[in-house]
Structures are given as structure tokens and as C-alpha cells.
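$ run holo --ligand "guanosine-5'-diphosphate" --emit C-alpha cells
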Amino acid sequence: MSAPVVAVVGRPNVGKSTLLNRIVGRREAIVEERSGVTRDRKAVDAEWRGRPFIVMDTGGFIATEEGLDAEVSRQSVRAIEDADAVVMVVDVTVGVTNEDEAVASLLRGRDIPVFVVANKVDDTNRENDAWAFLSLGLGDPHPISALHGRRTGDFLDVLVDALPPEGEDADGDEGEVREEILAVAIVGRPNVGKSTLFNTLDRAERSVVHDLAGTTRDTIDTVIETESGPVRILDTAGMRRRGKIDVSTEYYSVVRALRAIDTADVVLLVIDALIGVTHQDQRLAERASISGSPVVVLLNKWEMADADQRELVSEQVDDRLKFLPNAKVLKISALTGKGTHKIIDALLDTADTYHRRIPTAKVNEVLRQAQAHQPAPGGTRVLYATQGATDPPTFTLFANRRLPPTYLRYLERKLREAFAMGDTPLKLRVRARRD
Ligand code: GDP
Ligand code: GDP
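-- output --
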């Protein structure tokens, strides 16, 4: 289930970035490296009291003589439109400005929770100044100091309480029948060939543009009927046939991509073979690996790559996508269709292992043999193990003591080999009798 999105808005210098850092505890770069029009957009993962959410830094609103800078504002508006909640940051040391009022006017009357955070309330003396922002018409201001962490926890309590319950979209509808159909996210940097691939798959198979309500409110997923059953292609911005959308949606597609990765049963990571594996490709792969979604890597534009490029990109896959050690890698040309017929099988195979459940007796047999072959140091032993969950396969190992990480990796490798788990991420949990 995808995490709710919180957009942070406000004019420059009120402390949006400071608040963002306070919320996530550290600065975390995102998958999309392209700069926005005036500054980088950031989408970061956050968690408060066990509730995960995505914080979207919108780049703010910039005032001009005519009001707000149109381009920047448009981007902020888009972010607001896809958010499940909005945090508008204001500065108590300055008071209500025209820009604040312009921002507030964009937020009033929306059907999502909107919070005014009165920042830079560094001490109690400042607290009364916060009430001036009642005039924005967005409810009681929450006085905080992002810099010092003053009352930020109180505010986050209120914020997460207002987020849609887990497993529901903001509209309150359940995740519908989505689970029944294999959900696939096609992700990759701009221009790697995602739309081309989408169209090729779409043409080759019987595509029913079911126009299922997508994973986010204004997205539309496509269902492709294959010989092996329906496959749902999640809508990530800029991929559907309606063609390219303007630049302002580019940064915005980050949130889409992140959500799609979290929702997908399998991720298709498209890489431009002519360019090679970039830092950004690594980030996407890493993200998929963290979210537990198995990945199929597609080296696209293969027909155009010369021998050197082919060798280089193959090396890069081994080297730079280390955290996807067993991922299937296909060489394709989305443009000519060469190699693309293998994609659906690769997807289904990959998804199958993801849903596999292995009998306890077999798990224990493999671990017994692995330990006999190479015992853990210091008499540490796994006594019993069971697969507690699928999607991804999760094993609980009961041990007499805590297992060294290297040994755990060894056991993971053995399990993976024994059950031909391919690229599926495995989770191993260890219950130690005593630490
Ligand atoms: P942004 O442009 O809205 O992202 O604002 P920044 O986070 O960059 O903050 C602008 C300035 O306000 C920086 O100098 C911050 O150190 C300062 N600032 C942010 N939060 C606080 C706060 O709670 N108290 C005080 N006194 N200064 C703050
Ligand atoms: P997206 O931004 O990832 O959706 O990329 P597009 O599908 O729009 O493709 C970007 C450009 O790469 C277009 O000019 C495509 O025609 C081209 N392209 C896509 N796939 C291939 C391929 O397999 N081979 C070659 N030579 N060009 C491709």
C-alpha cells in the first residue's frame, strides 16, 4: 500500500527545508535529479509513530509584481493537488505577508487537511504572535520551532492523525480489486524509452485500457491481457499514450514513480543502453529493493548499442546494481520490439517466486545442511525456521544466539539457491533465544 503524501508549501525563507529536515531527521536525495525551474524538488520518506508518509517539498511560491511567480506556483499547485495533506509554513517573526495570503487562497476550500504551521516560535514569548495567522482562514496555527524542534512532535501527532487510514486512499475507498491483477511499474529516467515500451507491449498484447482508477487520484492504469492472464501497468507520469506532458510534471512524476514502486508486484526498470547505468538508475533500483518489490532490468535501445557500449553496460549492471544480485536482465529494443516478447514471462516468473510459500520441513532441511557444511562461529545455531509470510518471502529463524550478519547472508544465499528464488528479495528475521 502506498504511503500518503504530505506537501509542504510556503513562501521562501519561512523554514520549509528546516522543517523537512526535522521531520525526516536527515537529508535524503530523491530519484529525480532534474532541477525544477527555480530549485530542486524533494520527495522524501518520513515516518512518525510508525506511520510512513512521503513529504513533498514543493519549492515554494515566489512572489512577483503581479503576484506569485506563475511557473513555480503552478508546480506547487500540482503538488497540492496530489497530496493527501498540506502543511503551509509561515514565519511568526515576520507576520502575515501578501504572499502568505496568496498561498492561503490556493489552499482554502480544499477537501484535504491543511495545516498552518507558525514557524520560528523559538520561545513562549513568540507564541501569541502565531495567532495572527488565524486571518489566513485555514484554522488554528500550530506554533513550532523547526530549528530547535520545539513542539514539532506535537504537530506531527496531529498531522499523522489526519492522514488517511492505512490501506485507503484519501477518498476513503478501499484498495479495490487491484491485488488480483499483477501490478507492474515501468520506471526509469526520462527518455530511456518507457512510453515506447508501453506502446509496444500494448500493441503486442490485447490491451484493454480499462481505465482503472490508478494508484493516485488522477492516474489511470492500463490492463493488458496476456496469454498468462491480465497484467496491470501502473500509470507513472509521462508514460501513457497521451504523450509527453510539460516539464512541470517531470518532478512530479517522482512521487508517481515512488508510489508505483511501492504498489507494484514487479518493477520494470528501463535503462538506456546507450547511456549506461546512471546514479539515478541506481536510486530507483535501490528504492525498489528497499520496498521489497522484485525488479526486472531492461537494457533498452540495445539495437543501437555498439559492441563497446554493450560490454560496458553489462559490466555496469553487475557493478552498479549490486543490490539486485539476481535480477533478470533483458536486452531489448522497445522501438523495434526485439526482445520484448520475453518481458511478460520474466515478469510472471519473478512475481511467482515473490508469492511462493515453502514448506517448513524443506526450509529446515536446507538450513540444517547449510549449517552442517559451514557452522556459524562460536556455537551459534539456527534451531528452527519457518516461512512466516510471502510477498516477499519472509523467513523467521529461531536461533540460540544472535547471528553474525555475514552468516545470515550465507544462509540467505543457501535458501535462495535451494528454492530458485531468483531475484526476489528475501527477508530473514532472527529470533535469538538470548542476545
Ligand atoms: P525555506 O526557504 O522555507 O525552505 O526556509 P529554510 O528552511 O531555508 O529557512 C530559512 C531561514 O530560517 C534559515 O536561516 C533557517 O535557519 C531559519 N529558520 C528555520 N526555522 C527556524 C526556527 O524555527 N527558528 C528560527 N529562529 N529560525 C529558523
Ligand atoms: P520515456 O521518456 O522514458 O517515456 O522515453 P520515450 O519512450 O519517449 O523515448 C525517448 C526516445 O528514445 C524517443 O525518441 C524514442 O523513439 C527513443 N527510443 C525508445 N526506445 C528505443 C529503442 O529501443 N531504440 C532506439 N534506438 N530508440 C528508442
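-- notes --
The chain has eleven helices and 18 strands.
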